[in-house]
Amino acid sequence: MVAKAWDSSLSLxxxxxxxxxxxxxxxxxxxxxxxxxxxxxxxGTPSGSRHSTYDRTLTDLPISGARVELRLKVRRLRCxxxxxxxxxxxxxxxxxxxxxxxxxxxxCEALLHAVAVALGGRPGARMMARLAxxxxxxxxxxxxxxxxxxxxxxxxPRVIGIDDFAWRRGHTYGTIIVDLERRQVIDLLxxxxxxxxxxxxxxxxxxxxxxxxxxxxxxxxxxxxxxxxQQVADRWHLFENASAAFLAAVRMxxxxxxxxLAPSGPVDPATLTRAERLQWDGAQIRxxxxxxxxxxxxxxxxxxVMAHTTGVSRQTIRKILRGQRHDTxxxxxxxxxxxSLILEAEWSAGCRVGAELWRRLKASGFAGSLRVVSEWAxxxxxxxxLGHAVGAAxxxxxxxxxxxxERGTGSAQTAMINAVVERAVxxxxxxxxxxxxxxxxxxxxxxxxxxxxxxxxxxxxxAAFAAGVEADxxxxxxxxxxxxxxxxxxxxxxxxKLIKRQMYGRAKIDLLKARxxxxx
Length: 520
Fold this sequence. Notes:
Blueprint: H1 2-9, E1 15-23, E2 26-33, E3 38-39, E4 46-47, E5 50-63, E6 66-78, E7 88-90, H2 107-119, H3 122-130, H4 137-146, E8 159-168, E9 172-179, E10 184-189, H5 194-203, E11 209-212, H6 216-225, E12 230-233, H7 235-252, H8 254-261, H9 274-298, H10 303-310, H11 314-321, H12 340-348, H13 354-363, H14 370-386, H15 396-403, H16 412-424, H17 426-444, H18 450-457, H19 463-471, H20 473-481, H21 487-502, H22 509-516
């Protein structure tokens, strides 16, 4: 029965097994090829005249966890065709056995390539050692670079998605290209320069649809190299850009909104906590710098000169000129934001101890620390003693969320925020309505609503976003009506990041392409 198992495991066409043995836990098989003749690789003349023999050792798949070694007796044959310059040649092995000069049986290549794609070099070598086929990490990488020997050539892509990925975040970027019809990565480019993308598109003139983000580089490359292709803007980025535009509008109104939502009057530095005192001191330095930049702007000084004079970036100078950097206490997102109503209710019911508040919140599902709740209770007691709140407790993101996604929750805090904002800044209510109309238009797939929306948004606080949509109008219209999107591309970028981290960030582009482009 064991012999039959061995024979069935080595059921390679044209092999005659002559012996088998187990030596130190390794299965060693010996055999020869059944063919009586070989074909000369130069002239193609068959020959059965033996010159000599030699042994060739191949590794095969394991049997029941035991390594298998196949030793073949290979003949060297004479070429009897007189005009042929070759005197002798080795008996060629069938493709099922091994590649030329190969050290493994051909059926091992698929397993080796699959493990190399999944794990890479060093982890793949450790896995193969556990599978009783101990190939080195260099072998794993070599097979990975050679590609899958059983893979069939892919058809030319017609619908592609294109996006960038970070080689080093904030410094260098590459480009990923996905065949959206086959749901498969088809290429990685070393950078995201327009010339590189143009060259790739010119090599693939059959591309009919290009899904891309709204970055200027990919827009210019697609317009130049593939004017026949329909460009489709990424819907997710359109939703994200619209929300970011509304958040920017809220941030421009934050100095006035904070004074209304949390009136504090003149701040006495002696009443501040240590953390608030640090913010207060920083705010005085910022305000002095703000006054200097505003004075320079009133004199007509260009932003480039102001940046060189003050050492402040141009982006920060623009925020100062727009009134976005004049708040004293800059609020951030807090883990207590979602629990503010429960905290207020417990505080009003008489629970004033931070530890007890934390225990009650924890029983309701709060996952934050005791310190966060204790500091909140300390500030609340101080504010009640002074008769007012020292610092504003709401961030721009909290207000924007209350006006949009949380508007239908019906909570008292949301209703209070929306009522105050509607009275203080009616323009934000108009901008919110325009944002809602944009979301409804994208979800309805009604392309005819785009032009009226642009005309309406042009006179609101989302005018800059509307101008960008109008400049990319054809691609945005295609995003509304087309079934294609860049969702697959974003998913493959996430997968690429995982593979890069598995390779400790040392992946060259050829290895990264081999792993990312392998069929899932």
